[in-house]
Every structure is written in structure tokens, then in C-alpha cells.
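Write out a sequence, fold above all:
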Amino acid sequence: MQLFFHMNTYYSNGKLLITGEYAVLDGALALALPTKFGQNLQVSELDVPSIIWESFSVEKTLWFQTEFQISELGVLNADKRVATLQNILVEAQKLNPNFLNDGKGAFVQTFLSFPNDWGLGTSSTLINNIAQWANVDAFQLLHNSFGGSGYDIACAQNNTPILYQNKNSKPLIQASNFLPDFTDALFFVHLNKKQDSKEGIQLYRSIDEDKKEFVDQISELTAQILGAPNLLIFEKLLEAHEHLVGEFLNIVPLKQSLFTDYFGAIKSLGAWGGDFILVTGNEQTPAYFNERGYETVLTYKEMILA
């Protein structure tokens, strides 16, 4: 019979990358916003060296479950999700050799407060929570397991808007006072599909040209967007950012491809092609997107920690 001992709980915020998508990988200055949604991780110690893992959706339904011996961590598992989890734990052990190395195990439960397909950081919140549990650097754990710029880890750890920059593989994080007086005109619309950020990164990496000018232009736009004095200028800057990224990736911006008749500005977030978009608008905005089959429309205050 397995005995459960004291329980520890960890929490990480979800994330949205407002500016700097793709370019943040090469050191561009980016504006990122932690969300009111996130993920909890609860760990109870077991008296046997095994891991029992259960992951629950926002509806409290069990969507992932596995059990394995800690001694099996280094053995490749045929189940991709199990293998991914085990890899994170292995990398955490490398950073802290005392982690899961005392002959005891753990009963772990994770709880998302947002739907799995929203793209707010199912993986980044997990990595940050495991890093807290293992007492290791979350940015290093991300680098060793998933890769990426690290802005999502910064959001997981901060409760205010941040300016993020990856300089010489080191995260530079600065609290931002981004709270414009036109937040009532900002909405987040879910595109009904989850974008694989790894695919987006691969597309960006495949572009064989000097990215310095692109990165510098994105950094400048981030600074301008942060200081936009009114909604009209904010919208023009969002459109300039969207045009610049679309031109660099050789992809038609979303407003031109899907929402040509929309009256406000539309900006893709994070990896282009899925998850949420940022739109400017008014009380008619939710109805516009609802009528076109996009039922998830959140206000700025509903989505963002501030």
C-alpha cells in the first residue's frame, strides 16, 4: 500500500506575447502579458520510488494519466506525452541531482484554469511549476527541454505586464506600466485552433537571411506601442507590426485573409495561425466574431493580470 505524505502546491501564470513574435528568439524587445488563467501543480510525497501523474482540464476532467518508476525516467517511452514529461523530469534531475533521488516518489496532479486549446501556456506553466518543485532555474529547464525564447516563463513568474528580451541567452525582464486608458477597446479572440509554436519557430528559423534589421524594427515598434498615447496611434502601430512580420514570413496578415470587413485593428499573437488574436473595437466586437463562428471573445480585463 502506498502512503501519501505532505502536499506542496505550485502555480504559474499563462501568457500572451503582444509584440515581438518570432523576433524575440533573436533578442528583440517584446511586450508580454501574464494572464489571469494558469496552471496549478500539486505534489504529495509517496513512500515508494514511483510517479503517479494526473492532469485535469478546466472542466475538472482527467485528460492525461500515467504511472512509472523513477528508475524508468531515462528509458524512452512509446507514448509521446509520457516521454515529454519524463524528459522534463530528467532535465530537472540534471540541474538538481537531489531531485527525485531519495528513494521516494510523488503523486502529482495538475489543474488548468483555461481550455487546453487556448494556447496560453500549457507547457510553459508546467515547466515553471516543475522547476519550482525541483528547485531549479525554470529558464534553464525550458532551454534544456523545449527550447524557445523564455518570455512564457517570465510571464509564468510575474504578475504584471513585462518587457522581455533575450540577450546572450540570458533573460532580461522589466516590469512594464502598460495599462493604456483604452483597454476597454481591447479584446482577445480565439481562432478555434491551437497553433504549434514549434512549427512557427521552425518556419522562422528556416528563413535564410540576416534578421538584425527585422529584430531592430520589432524592438522599435515594441517601444512605440508601449508608449502609444491614444487608440488611433496604437492601432496604426499594431498594423505596422502585423505587416512587418507578415512580410518577413511571407504570410498574408490575418485581417487581409479572414476579416477584411472588420472595422478595428487585428494583430496575431505568438505563433501566427492559431490561438488568440488581439483586436481593437467596441461593444459590437463580440457580435462580429460570434457571427463568424468565433465564440471566445474576452475583454482585456477578463484576460490580463494587471
The chain has a mean pLDDT of 93. Residues 183-303 form a domain with the Alpha-Beta Plaits fold (CATH 3.30.70.890). The chain has ten helices and eleven strands.
